[in-house]
Task: structure prediction
Amino acid sequence: MLKHLMIEEMVALVSPWVENAQRKRLFLSIPEIAGLHPKVVASHEAVLAVRPSKAGPSGEMNALNDELARVDERHDHLAKAVCWGIDAHREHCLGADPPDRERAATCDQVQPKLFPNGLSIIKASPTAEAGNTARVARLLDEEPSIGEFLKGISAPGKTTLLHTTQRWIKTGKELEAIEHRRDELAAKEKAAPVTRATIAAARSQWFRVVSAVLSNLELSDAPIEAIETIRGPVLKASERAGKRYGGAPAGQGSSGEAPGEPAVGEEAEREAGARDGELVS
Result:
């Protein structure tokens, strides 16, 4: 009856053997099946790779998007801190008695070099923001006097505006790195289309490994409670799956195939059809 399990059921049944620490320890404590665990992991990864998505980005891509949003927000705040910090310093200079007009003039010279288009950069793409902070880093190298000027402006935590600028530059590098990882992941996900053949291969791999686990448990001298903890959910799910197809005789599928063989008829078509529909949408 294993052949009637859907991909999502296959994922859910083996996931505890791989991802649940307690269940994994129990699996590895049974000598007859412990050696099969690497194959279990590989088969689990195979069905995960062909599992129909729930629409939208993958979990890994969502994590990268969240990370990008956090770093981008920090970038924007640091850019505003540098820009407004220079503006505030200029006003302090002009508000002194007597006014320090020379240093105020330096503020007017440095500001357009760091922000040629004002704060419009924080509305740009992460790639553009990263490119801009790289430009600022080169500017500090080419004109050390700007760094010395920024070092003379106090910032929170007994730091200076130069330190804030360096943090701003660092966020640009982080944005660039995250964007690169996003591009690589997008290319990887796009370059590995899921086809009927890959679904069938993943199912077949899973069936062979899980069937071997169940067979070896029949020979095991482990406590019956441990054996049932491992195989019980699989057998119950398999029985339920079999009833969906009219209750084929035990040991045989609805098409007369031996148990553990990949579905090649209605079930495989349904799995692949669901996947194909998602790819088209």
